[in-house]
């Protein structure tokens, strides 16, 4: 340190030991004639006064000065010298210290954490230096497998298990705080969002009577039911599916102002109630049947909002102190809905008369040999006293930031709450979430360099219809579809040994590749592969991400035997997993984690745009076949052709092929080029949200996975059962489907000047 300072002092002495009458002053002045700056050199004396205000360099005139006493000049020099020496000393100390710190941040430094490596400024201002990846894909997957252990899951499962943790409760908030602290300890820059939502909870006990006989006062309930009392004839409606209700209508069973008695299963509770309401029922009773796992007193809990999010702020996020116009979701039922136990259902069934139910309607209630559909004299009285409460819920987040595109991220999420113990539905998913966060954070310390970010999210109010997740999506709707490129739901990831998955077609290929890769690992504990392409349903944790926000999503789904009951506990899950729960947790984490890592590791996103080519062609072929049949049968008021729809499907196929060619012919190490290609891929899912309907009125706008007349399934159903008076509606459905697909194809093809639009 002394050497550089002495050298600096010697050089300064040489400068000031020359002519004492003048010194050099450098002024930086902006060149108003252009963008460049020039250096202007002026020679002047201390305390000079410029005589003519002109620049010597421009006019050839020399500057004059007034000579001051020598002792004043030396005083100024000593002050300047002291300041300069002080500055140089500070600079050299800082430089040496900074160099030592940077040496400890180098990737691969022995015994040093790689989390210290951050994008640093290079020599040129604004240049970002990204650490070079030193691990290949096999290294990354091996590291993940090593860091996910059965013992760690054992500890976390014990730590997070709770008998009760309903949304907004003290236990739910306690879990949120615990997760937030874990993310803090992992240095994941954690944060949280608070939402104030309307949740419906039991008030006075709900009641059910058959004539004047009390059937029971169940403690289970269905959130968002209408409230009040209804008296009506009871009609047995099997599972409450549309085909069940059509059968009843065909055999002369009128559901108008009736009480529909429905068994659980096949479709969601909300869908059962919505279907019954369409056929005129005034109330619905839903029960779980007797089974090996259920006794007759098992209570059932759930919600009947045919939608997601807070139904009293549809389309708006429920942030505090935000004013909204009075509104209700169109998915809120206007009829009563209540759960009853199997024993209560048995009492009702044994008293019912009327026509015998068909074989497909027969069930498993013990002590009854034949079900009947009911008669006009079988009267049931239902009272629902649920009440709305303003509830604060908290979503917790942490992030592992990428180095190249940190503003692009995959989201991994799990619900935290449950009506009961919720061991399979929420506890296991929460443990998977925090263990994946721990493992991937450690991987980053050991040299893993993700290109993009991973956001970890713990949601509240999932049991009320994905309320926490949907409110977050509504709050950041304008940006999430441009930045979040995949959502992976961990809800119910392990409830048995049968593996199912519901996903966007963009993720099918990645899922299959991942299962093949992890299956080669000797420690992987196999699931029974039941289905990899289950249709995604509204109750799936990933559904609002896909159908509302247009984000490619995947949800691991299994048989939901225990969901919504107190039987969703550790003991039953151990039985369902053959006492290998922790091993199945490791396997589920490997699948979810490896999918996420692949999505943030590769230059090009592993989202298969050609999968939608196949799906579109399949649906268009079905539509075209229906149109040909209707034309030949003369069931249309005027000719209808599929030409434009077929052309739109062809446009998408060509755009997908063009993208693959661009990928093959591009220098993928060019970050800007990779980002442009990835932008085109990311927009595919979002562009399949119909732009012709309001997200407030119709939140689920996806033409393949949404609900409404604009969907492809609605068009196909209309073609199967056409009415001439609906001719205009049919043509509008054709137009909406055609131009949504064509718009998606145009954006996928690239820049507007590169399009070859055949329409």
From TrEMBL:
InterPro entries: PA_dom_sf, PA_domain, Peptidase_M28, Peptidase_M28B, TFR-like_dimer_dom, TFR-like_dimer_dom_sf. GO terms for biological process: intracellular iron ion homeostasis; iron ion transport. SUPFAM superfamilies: PA domain, Transferrin receptor-like dimerisation domain, Zn-dependent exopeptidases. Residues 28-64, 107-126 are annotated as: Disordered. Residues 35-45 have a biased composition (Basic and acidic residues). Keywords: Membrane, Transmembrane, Transmembrane helix. Its main location: membrane. One of its GO terms (cellular component) is external side of plasma membrane. It is a single-pass type II membrane protein. Residues 232-295 form the PA domain. The chain crosses the membrane at residues 76-96. Pfam families: PA (PF02225), Peptidase_M28 (PF04389), TFR_dimer (PF04253). This is Transferrin receptor 1b. It comes from Astyanax mexicanus (Blind cave fish).
């Amino acid at each position: 340190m002394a050497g550089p300072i002495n050298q600096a002092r010697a050089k300064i002495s040489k400068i000031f030991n020359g002519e004492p009458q003048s010194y050099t002053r450098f002024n930086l002045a902006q060149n108003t004639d252009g963008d460049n700056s020039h250096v202007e050199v002026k020679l002047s004396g201390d305390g000079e006064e410029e005589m003519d205000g002109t620049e010597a360099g421009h006019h050839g005139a020399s500057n004059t000065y007034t000579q001051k006493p020598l002792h004043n000049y030396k005083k100024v020099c000593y002050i300047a010298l002291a300041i300069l020496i002080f500055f140089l000393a500070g600079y050299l100390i800082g430089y040496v210290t900074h160099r030592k710190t940077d040496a400890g941040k180098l990737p691969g430094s022995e015994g040093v954490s790689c989390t210290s490596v951050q994008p640093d400024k290079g020599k040129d201002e604004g240049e970002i230096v990204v650490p070079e990846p030193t691990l290949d894909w096999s290294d990354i997957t091996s590291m993940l497998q090593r860091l996910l252990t059965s013992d760690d899951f054992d500890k976390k499962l014990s730590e997070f298990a709770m008998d009760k943790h309903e949304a907004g409760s003290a236990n739910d908030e306690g879990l949120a705080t615990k997760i937030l602290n874990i993310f803090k300890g992992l240095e994941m820059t954690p944060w949280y969002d608070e939402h104030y939502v309307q949740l419906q909870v039991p008030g006075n006990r709900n009641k059910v009577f058959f004539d004047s006989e009390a059937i029971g006062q169940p403690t289970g309930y269905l959130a968002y039911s209408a409230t009040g009392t209804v008296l009506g004839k009871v009609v047995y409606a099997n599972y409450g599916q549309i085909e069940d209700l059509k059968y009843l209508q065909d055999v002369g069973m009128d559901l108008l102002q009736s009480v529909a008695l429905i068994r659980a299963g096949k479709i969601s509770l909300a869908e059962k109630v919505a279907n019954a309401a369409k056929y005129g029922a005034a109330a619905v009773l839903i029960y779980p049947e007797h089974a090996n796992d259920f006794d007759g007193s098992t209570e059932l809990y759930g919600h009947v909002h045919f939608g997601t999010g807070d139904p009293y702020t549809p389309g708006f996020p429920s942030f505090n102190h935000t004013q909204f116009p009075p509104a209700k979701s169109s998915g809120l039922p206007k009829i009563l809905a209540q759960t009853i136990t199997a024993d209560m259902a048995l009492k009702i069934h044994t008293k019912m008369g009327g026509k015998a139910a068909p074989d497909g309607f027969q069930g498993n209630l013990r002590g009854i040999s034949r079900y009947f559909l009911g008669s006009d004299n079988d009267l049931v009285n239902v009272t629902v006293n649920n009440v709305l409460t303003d509830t604060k819920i908290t979503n917790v987040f942490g992030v592992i930031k990428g180095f190249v595109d940190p503003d692009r991220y995959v989201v991994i999420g799990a619900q935290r709450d449950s009506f009961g113990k919720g061991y399979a539905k929420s506890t296991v998913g929460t443990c998977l979430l925090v263990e994946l966060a721990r493992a991937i954070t450690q991987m980053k310390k050991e040299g893993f360099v993700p290109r993009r970010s991973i956001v970890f999210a713990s949601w509240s109010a999932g049991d009320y219809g994905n309320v926490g997740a949907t409110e977050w999506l509504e709050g950041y709707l304008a940006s999430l579809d441009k930045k979040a490129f995949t959502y992976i739901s961990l809800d119910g990831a392990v409830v048995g040994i049968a593996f199912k998955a519901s996903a966007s077609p963009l993720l099918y290929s990645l899922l299959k590749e991942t299962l093949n890769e992890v299956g080669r690992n000797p420690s992987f504990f196999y699931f029974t592969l039941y289905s990899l392409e289950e249709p995604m349903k509204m109750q799936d944790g990933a559904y609002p991400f896909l159908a509302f926000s247009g984000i490619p999503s995947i949800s691991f789904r299994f048989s939901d035997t225990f969901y919504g009951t107190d039987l969703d506990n550790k003991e039953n899950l151990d039985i369902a997993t053959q006492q290998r729960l922790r091993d199945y947790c490791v396997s589920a984490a490997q699948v979810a984690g490896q999918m996420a890592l692949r999505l943030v590791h590769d230059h090009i996103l592993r989202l298969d745009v050609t999968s939608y080519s196949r799906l579109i062609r399949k649906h268009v072929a079905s539509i075209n076949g229906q149109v040909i049949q209707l034309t030949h049968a003369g069931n249309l008021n005027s000719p209808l052709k599929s030409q434009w729809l077929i052309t739109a499907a062809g446009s998408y196929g060509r755009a997908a092929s063009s993208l693959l060619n661009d990928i093959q012919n591009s220098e993928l190490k060019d970050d800007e080029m990779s980002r442009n290609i990835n932008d085109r891929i990311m927009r595919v899912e979002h562009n399949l949200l119909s732009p012709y309907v309001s997200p407030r009125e119709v939140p689920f706008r996806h033409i393949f996975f949404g609900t409404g007349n604009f969907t492809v399934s609605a068009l196909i159903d209309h073609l199967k059962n056409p009415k001439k008076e609906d001719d205009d509606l049919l043509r509008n459905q054709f137009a909406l489907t055609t131009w949504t697909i064509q718009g998606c194809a145009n954006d996928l093809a690239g820049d507007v000047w590169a399009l070859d639009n055949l329409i």
